[in-house]
Amino acid sequence: MLRRERGAVLLAFVLILVIAAAYVLTSKLNSASATAYRQSRNAKALAESREALVGRAVADINRPGSLPCPDTNGDGQAELFAGTACPDYIGRFPWRTLEVADVRDFAGEQLWYALSRNFRDHPAAGPINSETAGQLTLDGTGDVVAVVFAADSLLPGQNRPNNIVTNYLEAENSDGDDDFVSMAVGDFNDQAAAISRQELMGAIEKRVGAEVRRALLDYESAFGNYPFAAPFSAAAPTLQSQVGLSEGLVPANNVAPPIALPAWFQGNGWDRLTVYAVNCADTPPPGCPAPQLRAGTVNADAIVATAGRRLNGVATACGNPYNQQVRDTGSSICDYLDRVESTNSDEVFDPVGTAVTATYNDRIKIVSP
Description:
Elements: H1 2-59, E1 90-92, H2 95-98, E2 112-115, E3 136-138, E4 141-150, E5 179-180, E6 191-196, H3 197-223, E7 247-249, H4 263-267, E8 274-278, E9 294-295, E10 298-299, E11 302-306, H5 340-343, E12 348-349, E13 363-367
């Protein structure tokens, strides 16, 4: 009888241990599931805010690539400039200015937003183009144009609601400098996502190519041909077309007749970053001796190629390192484009849509009616 009682007690003890272990495991799984769901919700909000910022930068009428100042009072409006500067370069996400929904994080908090000073939407910031480097870092990686944050729930020592960054963001994200993190030791629950220069300029370069293509098609429609190219020059390029030249820069300063390009094309320095080639059969007399212009295997009346930022560590088709390419006063196509196909002057360029890699970031557009 005593053995049976001891056995029953042991069985009950084991059952209790099993139930306790199952409870602990279930609690951990539930906690992990809740954390994953929270992070997923925040990641979605950050992705939507990044998309809105890139879209705004692409669509800007006067300074494509520029971004609004952060919102410092929580009304969703980007702050007006104080002189030529933003009142602050970290604040709330300016959703009203961007004309998007007030996307919030899992905890219901407004998103936060940090901006690289040289990408603010003010002429005093200087030209914005592929050579304009972002001044922010995220997790030690630089060349970042903007960072968006999900502050998430209140942590010890924080007081809300208000618009004080230290009551929402933690560690490097709230210390007032240009370096930010997505993880840190101690009390920390921020989620962060960056917009890099490469990502932003990839979208802007597509617009630049499209604008130049449209201007050239309008020119051809009005005058029956395309202009000759402007020469590359070791001195400051004049950007005037040169009779008989089929490959060079866009002749943005053509006077007779002019090409109707937006003011920002030269104002932001895209005239020194955009290569232009024309099929000699489509230029005014006397034309020029050259084979059919092509992008890959596709024939073209003209081709526009945005150069992208200078790359590092690999030799160009002409033998010089990418980081020694000269953009403002380059005297060769190798100062602008990257691969042999586009730089060997045989009138054949890389195909449209060639993938951007660590050693190639040209973007080709075909110009044909």
